[in-house]
Amino acid sequence: MEFGFSEEQNILRNSVTDFMEKECPPEYVRELDEKEEYPHEIYGKMSKLGWFGLPIPEEYGGSGLGAVDLIIVGEEMSRFSYEIAAGFGISVFCGLNIIEHGSEEQKKFYIPKMIDNKIRLSISITEPNAGSDAASLATSAVLDGGSWVLNGQKTFQTASDAKDTVMSVYVRTDKDLPKHKGISLILVPNDTPGVEIRRIKMLGRKMLHTNEIFFEDVRVPKENMVGELNNGWKMLLSGLELERLYGCSTFIGSSQTVVDLALEHSKQRVQFGRPIGTFQAMGHMLADMQTEVDAARLLVYRAAWMLDQGMPCMKQVSMAKLFGSETYARLSNQGMQIMGGYGYSLEYDMQRHFRDSRIITVSAGSSQMQRTVIAREMGLRVV
Ligand SMILES: Cc1cc2nc3c(=O)[nH]c(=O)nc-3n(C[C@H](O)[C@H](O)[C@H](O)COP(=O)(O)OP(=O)(O)OC[C@H]3O[C@@H](n4cnc5c(N)ncnc54)[C@H](O)[C@@H]3O)c2cc1C
Predict the structure, then answer these.
(1) For the ranges 123-127, 189-193, 270-274, 379-383, which has the lowest average pLDDT?
(2) What separation in Å is there between the alpha carbon of 193 and the centre of ligand 1?
(3) What pTM, to 2 d.p., does this model score?
């Protein structure tokens, strides 16, 4: 069994760390969080280094990196900012979907722009009546001459309001087919007439923003459909393992930062004449926290390795999502306890982890849905 990374992977990790240390200090993250601003500036710098093309095949201007490489990037980036790493992933994975299912024209049109940060890509599935049951989505698209006409509403949409965003909108194109079969994917620029985006005020995710989107007779050229008509559900599931794993890598990087912050505080903060970390209750809590981060990390690495080997790994990916997201949420809560009143203060970063981590056991497939996937993979017919 080999637990090491290749020399190239170590270089990749170091280069991400070096960049983030220089370009993404804690003050920068705090400022964007406070001002609720999308991280355009740092994404511009990342695009100059070609990062948005890291997993994109070389023939479309990318570097063709594999799953293990990509989780190294996600883990290191998220040590500095969970949100910056998450927003990066959304664009890249929507791009990979176009690579996998789009026409040659779509790949040549959208992918270089995404890599050069001239556009951003976002994903639009969830609706008021279609959350965990995503296949019940009802936003419709009807062909009218040379255009698709969209009507309906999406909710909880990350970063769809960022400037020059092209939204990957999953729509119902056939109401008479079974619900998983009448869905298609259409690309809609967010400044198309008839699109109205309203910000939803949320506890966290202040940089990326969470939105409702209303579509009223929104017309886009029929060429904006990605892949085959009514094949959207399969497309949604096709790249899911890599996308989920990237998400998991951001949970472990962020969790590590939570432990590092809590550990540092426990060494500095003196009560009853000694650092609080030397109280066994605190020391043991920190030991458990680091153990959980390492366990989450190993689940992610194992699933990424399996994916690179071409092995089926949905169960392992779901375990990594379940345990990784629960770990980040639990640890940021414990981090608040270790930091006492300072954790609750907006002047310290722990509260941001607490806010941002709370939703990850719900979004992108809740913990309950992950357990259902794992149980089914174990041969149980759970509903
Ligand atoms: C900050 C944020 C960002 C998001 N970004 C995006 C985005 O960019 N694009 C997008 O399309 N969506 C996005 N989402 C939506 C997200 O994926 C959904 O919130 C998620 O799928 C859950 O749907 P819901 O919120 O409607 O909860 P519900 O589906 O109503 O679930 C509520 C509770 O019921 C449980 N539950 C539901 N069904 C079952 C079941 N069968 N078995 C057991 N338990 C069940 C769930 O686990 C959960 O605990 C985002 C959400 C948030 C909060």
Answers:
(1) 379-383
(2) 28
(3) 0.97
